[in-house]
Write a structure and sequence with these properties.
alpha/beta, single chain, six-stranded mixed β-sheet, Metallo-beta-lactamase, Chain A, five-stranded mixed β-sheet, 7 helices
Length: 248
C-alpha cells in the first residue's frame, strides 16, 4: 500500500503494577485519524472504573495496583489532545476483557466494531471473571463482523469497509472466544495491535510457547516468524512497558 503516514497515537489507558509478575505496564489503546473520524482501538479503563466502580473493578484495580488516575482514561486523553469525545466515531475492540472495555461507556455515541464470536460470548451471559457487564450496560451500538474469505498477510481477516487508512480485524482466537488483532495501514507500513495474543512488551522470544498457549493462545510461533519476515509491520501488545508510550 502507498500514501502518507497515518496519524496514530499510542495511549496508555491504564497503568498496572502487579506484584506478580513484577512488571510496570500500561494498557495499549490506539487513536487513529481516518476519513470517518477518529477511531479508538480498545478503550482501557474508563472513568466509571475509577469513580463509580463495582466490587469486581475495585478488586481488579487494587490487585493490579493501578494508580486510578482518571487522566489516563481515553476520554481525558482525547480531550487533552484537543478533540471532543464526539469526534471518536468508531471503536474497534480486540476483545472485551475488563481492562480493555472499561472506556466504552465514555463514548456512548460511537459505533463499536467487534468480532461476532466475542459479542456472542458476552451476550450469552456465560462470562467469567475477566469480563465486567457494567462496561456494556449502556447498550453500545455494536457492529459485529464475521470472516468472509479475505486475508491480510495470509492471516484470515476482515477489512472494515470504508476506512482510509485501511483497518483490518485479524482473528487470533485463544485468549478469549473472539479475540482479534487490529491492523492499521500507515503509509507503506502497518501497525498491528495484537492485543493479548502476544506477551508483555511483545517479548515473543522470552516466554516459552507452552506458557503462552496456556495464557494467551496458540499464536506466538506464527507471530514470531511473521515479525521476522515483515519488518514493515510494527507489532504492539495489549500491555507494553511504560517507557513505550513516552517515546512512540
Amino acid at each position: 500500500m502507498t500514501g502518507k503516514k497515518t496519524a496514530i497515537r499510542f495511549l496508555n489507558c491504564g497503568t498496572i503494577l502487579p506484584y506478580f509478575p513484577r512488571v510496570e505496564s500500561g494498557i495499549s489503546c490506539l487513536l487513529v485519524e481516518t476519513n470517518e473520524g477518529l477511531v479508538l482501538i480498545d478503550t482501557g479503563f474508563g472513568v466509571g472504573d475509577y469513580t463509580s466502580s463495582g466490587r469486581k473493578m475495585r478488586f481488579f484495580t487494587a490487585a493490579m495496583r493501578s494508580p486510578k488516575d482518571v487522566n489516563e482514561t481515553a476520554l481525558y486523553q482525547v480531550q487533552q489532545l484537543g478533540y471532543t469525545p464526539a469526534e471518536v466515531r468508531h471503536i474497534v475492540m480486540t476483545h472485551l476483557h475488563l481492562d480493555h472495555a472499561g472506556g466504552l461507556p465514555d463514548f456512548p455515541h460511537a459505533k463499536v466494531h467487534i468480532y461476532q464470536p466475542e459479542l456472542e460470548h458476552i451476550l450469552s451471559g456465560n462470562v467469567g471473571f475477566g469480563y465486567n457487564r457494567d462496561h456494556w450496560a449502556h447498550g453500545p451500538d455494536w457492529l459485529p463482523h464475521r470472516l468472509n474469505g479475505e486475508s491480510w498477510y495470509n492471516f484470515d481477516a476482515i477489512r472494515l469497509d470504508g476506512f482510509e487508512p485501511e483497518l483490518w480485524l485479524i482473528p487470533l482466537i485463544g485468549h478469549t472466544p473472539g479475540h482479534c488483532g487490529v491492523a492499521v495501514g500507515q503509509g507503506n507500513a502497518w501497525v498491528l495491535h495484537a492485543g493479548d495474543a502476544v506477551p508483555f512488551n511483545v517479548a515473543v522470544d522470552d516466554v516459552p510457547d507452552w506458557i503462552s498457549r496456556l495464557l494467551i493462545g496458540p499464536h506466538i510461533p506464527r507471530i514470531r516468524e511473521f515479525m521476522k519476515a515483515r519488518p514493515e509491520v510494527k507489532v504492539v501488545g495489549a500491555h507494553m512497558s511504560l517507557d513505550f508510550y513516552k517515546f512512540v
